[in-house]
Structures are given as C-alpha cells and as structure tokens.
Amino acid sequence: MNVGDKVKLLHGKEEGTITRILPGGEVEIEIEEGFRIPALKSEVVLINEVESSYFRSEKPASPTWQPKAAKSSALSSSSGIFLAYIPFNDHNHGMYLINNLNKDILYAISEVHGDNSKTLGAGVAKAKSHHMMEEKSIKVFENWPALLIQIIPINFRLEKTEKPFERSVKFKASSFFKSKGKAPVLEKDGYVFRLDHNVSELDVQKLNQELNPQQATEKPISRQFSRPAREIDLHIEKLSDEPEFLSNSDKLKLQMEVFEKNLNYAIATGMDEITFIHGIGNGILRKEIHRYLSQLNHIKYFKDTHKSNFGYGATLVKIHE
Q: Which of 9, 85, 301, 315 could cross-link 191 (Cys pair, CB 3.0–4.6 Å)?
C-alpha cells in the first residue's frame, strides 16, 4: 500500500484515499475533505487492485506505465492552459506546463515554502507548446510543496485583452488521483489539471439586496426563493470542481458565501432550523460561522450537532418564527 491507493475499511462503511504511511503498520486515510483517520494496514483493503498495483513498491517496475484515460475524450483537444504530471516509470512523473492556446503566454511557476519560494521555470510558452518544469516522485506525494502559477497572455496583434491570473495549488490525494486524462499537445496519459478555468463566485451583496424587505415585490418571499435543504454540506469539494486551485482564503470565502446564502434563504422561506456541515479540520470555518451567527438577532440559538455522523463537524441553527 502507498499514498494514493483507494481503500475501504474491513469492519466499517468508510472508504477513502491513503494520504500518509504511518509507523507501526498504520496508514492515514482521507475519507472526506479535511477529515482523516488512522487505520491498521490489516484492517483495510484495496478497492481497485489493478489501479492500485501501480503504486506498489513490492511489484517489479514496468518499463512504461500509462494511467487509464479519463472519461472525457475531449480533454486532449481542449483549448486552454494545463498542468500535467506524466509518468516516466513506476514512481517518477514529469511536471509539464502545457499551452494549448493559439497565442503565446508569459509564465512563472514557483514552489512555495512558507514565506519563501523557489522558481521552477519562467519565460514564454509558445502557442501549442509544452515545457517540463521538474521531475516529481509519487512516493513523497504528501510532501509536495504548494505551487504558485502566474500567467500573462500575450497579444501580438490588436485583439481582446485577457487578464493575467495566478493559481495557488496544493494537491490532495483525494482529488489528484481522480484527474486521469490525456494531456493536450503531449498526447500522453497522466494527471491533468486545467489552469485557466474561472471559478464562478456568488454575488452575496446582490443576494442581500434581493432579500431586503424594502425591495420586496407583491409575491410572497417564499415563492421568490427556493427553500434550501435542511442540511447544507460546506466541504470545499462539494462547492468547487477544482478545489486544488483555490487558496485557503479563497476556500473560506466561498464556503462562507454559500453558508450566508443558504441561511438567508432559510430565513426568507420561513424554515425553523437548518444544519451546516463544516467538518472538523482546523476549526476556522466553524469559528467564522459561529462568529457570524452570534451577531444576528433573528437566530434563536445555534449549537454543535450530529456527533454520530459528523463528529461535531456540523452546526444546527434554530431560527425565530
């Protein structure tokens, strides 16, 4: 067993991805975003023996290994900017920046170590080109540093201006090993990530204006807004298709916006209570939610809840009638 293996517990319903090998014959398993548990190797079983065999050091290395192609066959022909990890052998992967646009770009890719950083590569990436940054070992996946990727599109003729952008990337095993596909330009199988996808943000200010009683129309509020579910999952993987490209502050911002929107809708549609599942993690999201709720007058009370399901990873909000 190694990092990235998909496993399930022999004496339980939990399934997840191995994120760390622990001493004493144990492994750490991420069963949901930000929630990890330790388990004995003897108490877990691999879910997919064929897929997991790639990561096993006990087996002889095959000359070349290619991961299974992603379900979407259109990925390799997609226009855009990509980061791809292409296998060289059983353990080492080449990290590539791929420009599958019809225009050149300026780029800089750096490893981030706290307040310090190390630039892996910078320069001009021509249209329809690829550039190898470095070689990475899957064996030490859990120790890969965060990446800062900066992109500036170049216009050599008069055309629409595209804004520069940057992405902060810190991969998790649960999302990294699900991203198999054929890399554009290279036309090789590996783990592929689109960098130039924009994350749509919720307009909370506009939402609050819509909920302002002074702007209410003749229709009852309950008909204007959909009643949310009684339980809202705020785990970041439920809110974003590409959570690995969000910084910690961006993740918290998105989670709080979804929380505020659903709380507003719950109040507007006359719900008596709503539960927000935030997980345990480092506790920052829970503190922000509780701080926000403590400032509201129309909240009867709120409390930690669902110990059996979420391990105090949820907050129940009681709303005044």
A: 85
Same domain? For 48 and 113 the reply is: no
4, exposed or middle or buried, with CB in 10 Å at 0-12, 13-18, 19+? buried
Q: What is the pLDDT of residues 240-285, one digit of tens each?
A: 887 878 888 888 989 999 999 899 888 888 889 999 988 877 788 9
pLDDT, tens digit, 9 for 90 and up, residues 113-124: 888 999 999 999
Range of the domain at 217: 204-319
Count of CB atoms within 10 A of residue 122's CB?
A: 12
Under 8 Å between Cβ of 312 and 304:
yes
DSSP 74: T
CB 244 within 8 A of CB 193: yes
Which of 194, 220, 255 is the endpoint of a domain?
194
Same domain for 256 and 162: no
Are 81 and 134 part of one and the same domain?
A: yes
Domain end position, chosen among 194, 225, 260: 194
- Domains in the chain, number: 3
CATH of the domain at 85: 2.60.40.1600
Asked if residue 210 has pLDDT above 70, the reply is no
- Cβ atoms of residues 28 and 37 within 8 Å: yes
- CA separation for the pair 12, 14 (Å, rounded): 6
Q: How far apart are CA 301 and CA 284, in angstroms?
A: 20
**Position 15, amino acid:** E
Whether residues 96 and 132 share a domain: the answer is yes
Question: Does any domain span residue 88?
Answer: yes
| pTM for the structure as a whole | 0.49
Residue 64 has pLDDT above 70, yes or no: no
Q: What is the mean pLDDT of residues 17-32?
A: 77
Please tell me whether residues 152 and 213 are part of one structural domain.
Answer: no
Of residues 198 and 6, the one with the higher pLDDT is: 6
- From the CB of residue 61, how many other CB atoms can be counted at a distance below 10 Å? 11
